[in-house]
Amino acid sequence: MSAVVVLGGGWWPDAGWPISSQLGESSAIRLFEGVRLLRALPGDARLVVSGASRLGDVEPVAIGYAQAARELGVPAERILLLDTPVDTAREAYAVRAALGTGSRFLLVTSAVHMSRAVQHFRHVGLDPIPAPTQRLSGRSNWDRVKDWLPSAGELDKTERALHEYLGLVALRWDHEAGDAERADGSSVEAR
Hints:
Elements: E1 3-6, H1 19-22, H2 25-39, E2 46-50, H3 61-71, E3 79-82, H4 88-99, E4 105-110, H5 111-123, E5 129-133, H6 152-174
Parallel strand pairs: 1-2, 1-4, 2-3, 4-5
C-alpha cells in the first residue's frame, strides 16, 4: 500500500482556534481515520491530504489537514499536500498525477460520498480501496419512539443524500475537460 488519501471537506481557518476546532466535523473524522490507517501501514506509506478552497481568502483545507496530522504525530516527510483541487473530480486527477496510475491506496471520505468518489477515481484509471468514515445509517434498531420522529439530524441526512444523487448525475460532466487541464484553466498537478 503506497498511501492513504484523505479527501477534502469543510474547515474554518482561524489562528486563534486549535486545529481540532478549525476542521469541520466530516473533515476531522476523515483525517482521524486517515492517520489511524497510516499508522497500520509500512513506514514508507504516505498520507495524502487534499482539498482547496473555492473562496480566495480561505486557505485550502489540505493545509489544515497537514497541520492537524503533524500535531497528531505524523512526520512531515510522510505527508503529501494536494492543495489545488476544489472538487472530487480534480482530486482524482491530482492523486493520479502525484501517485501514478498503478498505485494502491486507501481512499478516505465520508460513507455517503464514497460511491461517487470511487467512480471519479476509477474514471481517471485508479482503483482505490474504499475506507469510508462517518456512517450515518444503520445506527438504530427502530425500536424507540425517537427513531420514528422527524428531526434536524434526519433532515441533514436527506440533504447529504440529495447532494450525492445530484453529484452522481453531474459526474460525467466533471471529466469532459480532459486529464491535463480543466476547462476553467485550473491545473490538476500536485503541489
